[in-house]
Amino acid sequence: MALRALSSLDVVSEEPAVVNEILHAVEQAFGPHGPGVLLVDNLYEGFENDRLCLFQGARALASLSEDELNELEFPELQYAVGWSRGREKFSGVLDLNKGSFYANPLHDDPAKKRTRLHKKYKHYDYKNYWPQQPSCANVEMYFKKIGRYINQIGIHIARHCDLYLQRKAGEGGNLPSLTDLLRVSTAAKGRLLHYFPNVENGSPVRKDNDLWCAYHNDHGLLTGLVSASYYEDDKHVPTGKCPDDAAGLHIMSRDSDRAQKVSFPPHCLAFQIGETAQILSGGLLRAAPHAVMMPKDVSSLSRVSFAMFMSPNPDVSLPLPPFADPENALETHPCIPSLFERYETGDTVGSFSARTIKAYNE
C-alpha cells in the first residue's frame, strides 16, 4: 500500500491553505473509505537513532531471565503495566508470539495528576515499573522521549480531526473535542513489542495460523506507530526493509476481505484511528482492522515495534452523536468482534474498553 507522508511542520501549522490540505488527508486516511492510516515525516533530528536505541532496549528486555521478567508482571493490573508474554488471548488462545512492555510515557505516576482515582480501572492510575537491569538502562529514557513526541503530534492530528468533523457534521453536530480529550488525559499507554522468531531449538515451528498478532481494531482514540525493525538470525537488518515480503503490518480493506501490507520508513510515524473516535464521531472517522503477519520464508526473523495508544480518561462518557445512525456508526468488519456487542448506550471509555478486551480474550 503506497501512502504519502505529511510533514510534521504542516501537521502543526495553522495556515489556512495547509490546514485544508491536512483535512483532505484526514478524510482520505480516516474517513469511511480510507485505509485507516496516516503517515507523518520530517520528525525531530535524531529520531532514527533514538528509535534504534529504544529497540535495542526492547531486545535486551525480552532476553531477561524468566525470574527477572516475572518481577515486571502485574496480573492484578490486567498486564496493562510492565511486561507480559503468553498472557493475552486472541480467539481464546494464549498469544506466545510476542512479548510486550506497557508504561505511560507522559506520567510516571498518573494518580498524582488526578483529583479522583479510577477505582474500577486502577491500571490507568498505576505507576510505571521500569526494568533496572544494566542491559535495559536506556529503555525508560527513549520510551518516554519517543512516546511524548508521538503524543504531541497526535494531539495536532486530533485537532485536524476536530476541524474535519465540524465541516462534516456542522455546528449542530454536538461533538466533543477530541483534542481536549487527549490534552487532559492521563490514560496514555506506550507499548514496546518484541515479536519472537517462529523457531524452536533451531527448527521452524508449525503454527495454526500465520499471524504474529491477530486482526483487531485499536479501541482507543488514536494510535501512533514507530516503523518496525527486523532481526534475522539475531542480527539487525540495517535497511529497515523486511527481508520477508509476507511479514509485517497488514490492514484489511473496508470493502472486502483483502488485506494490504503497509510499510513505512524509519523516518516516519504512522497514525491509526481507534474505535473511541469512531463512536464519538458517529462513524465519520473509522477504525481499520489490522494484523501483523509472520514471515513465510525466513523463520528466524524477529520484529520489534513501538505503539503509543492515546485515549481519553476512562470515566469520559462515550455517546453516539445525535445525528448518528447506529447501523452505520457501529459498522465493523466481519473479522472483528462486532461493535454492536461491545458498545452499550451509557458507556464510558473504561466500560467500553473492558468489554472490548473481554471480547478478544473469549
TrEMBL record:
From the Swiss-Prot or TrEMBL record, give the protein name. Isopenicillin N synthase-like Fe(2+) 2OG dioxygenase domain-containing protein
Gene3D superfamilies xrefs: B-lactam Antibiotic, Isopenicillin N Synthase, Chain
Q: Where is the Isopenicillin N synthase-like Fe(2+) 2OG dioxygenase domain?
A: 243-312
Q: Which InterPro entries match?
A: IPNS-like_FE2OG_OXY, IPNS-like_sf
